[in-house]
Amino acid sequence: MLDLLSNPELMRNVRAQLRPGRMLTAAGVCAALSLTVGYAMYDSNPRNSDWAKYYMLIVLGAQVVALSLGGALACLQSVAREKELNTFDFQRVTRLTPLELAIGKLFGAPALAYFASLCLLPAALFGGLMWGARPSLVLAAYAMLVLGSLVVHALALMISMLLTRGLSTGGALLLLWVLGMGSIPDMGILEMGALSPVVALGLAGQTSWTATGAGAGGWILMDTFYGMRVHHVAALTVLYFSFLAWILLALVRNLKRDPGVYELYSPRQAFALALYVNFLLIGFFKWEGNSPLGAQEALLGLNVMMFFALGLALLYNRDQVRRRLRTQGDSAAGWVAASWPSPYVVAGMVVVGAAVIAAVSASPLMAKSGPGGAATWDTGLAAYRVAFIGLWLGRDILFLQWMNLTRVRRPLILGFLYLLVFYSCVMILVAALDPGPASRPLASVFLPFAVFGLQAGEWTAHANAWVFMLLLQAALCMGFTVLQHGKLAELSQPAVHAPAD
Hints:
By secondary structure, the protein is mainly α. The protein has 2 domains: 1-262, no CATH class; 265-493, no CATH class. Helices cover 70% and strands 2% of the residues. It has helices at 2-5, 8-17, 20-44, 50-84, 88-92, 98-108, 111-131, 135-162, 168-182, 199-204, 232-254, 267-284, 292-313, 318-328, 335-338, 342-361, 379-404, 411-433, 440-446, 456-461, 463-492, and strands spanning 222-225, 228-231. It has a two-stranded antiparallel sheet. The chain is globular.
């Protein structure tokens, strides 16, 4: 604790955020809103204690917004603002370790958000006392609020570290999307409650720890993990600490590096993260209401997004490639290097896909008969889906890696734009032409996610055509590997300087 309070980066941020004028303004606004809202709610129904419950939840909701969203936006500006002011390089050369610098920013940047939440605390406790809230549940609600906000702040700090000038709005939108998705209970495919700090509202509004299903207002209080019933507070505590550790690992690896050579995770760490996330997804997956192939589709769909994100985290830019060429020589320009990072993406997808097939085969769905059970399961089709999706991801990641080595401004953004235009045009054409089962394999080369809708009957009738398209996907991967090999050969050539006149 003493080491934390003596952290120079923390002290610098606290002094900047908690100036007397700012603190006085924040305290005045919080006091005025608390008194006004409290009096209005009490006056509407003074004889019913429910006014106090909803008053507590309103104030707690304001704390959730202030701490999770307001603090996250402050962290989002933490590193990006330093880069804009050209002061970030001075921080990178200080004696602070990467962990000390990360901790200083993590707790210092949202200092004003913590202060505002603290100013609202008396009003929330007053409402809970007047209503008769259970103290242990209120304490658990605030623990989830603080822990969840820490994870969101760390994620915002990592995004801020990766942002380049002019992309702050995109980072804020990404952060809002993550918070929004995390606030949806179970998301329709997981047997667990909301993941974001908004879960504090559901906890504080309960009267018992022993709820076995959804609490009042639809808040899920009990999760199912590999068939075991686990209280949502226990599950969230483990998830918050584990993901905070993963994000801090990325921050510590990169925060004091040159931005041109950022690498969020090593390949082994990225692979381990993918396995850990899939361990959680399969454990919390909602099997009820799915068919075996439908369950595989849902789990593979989540893995497409995850492995695409991990593939992006492993991409090299021109500076990183030049650095590898200087340190590793010709091996950094060979064919193995030219296929980067598709081997990790494809191999990871195959390993995880095999685990998904094993999980589905051992799931309760296989005990059912009829359309929703084992009668619709085809192991060959399931394996084909995994291979096809793995090659598809490898193809697109190879394209983005090749684009990232081209000499254009913001090549990765341009690569995303090309992919967006390509898939948009293809989807419009496929919708207009409406290919039949015989033509659908060919269409899948241009629109690979059509393989998610492939059913056992169509697979059996056109298996040869689908296998040929799988080989064509592999050929496209090889084509992008050849293109990247050419870029590596170009970068490995020594620079030629024109002779002076």
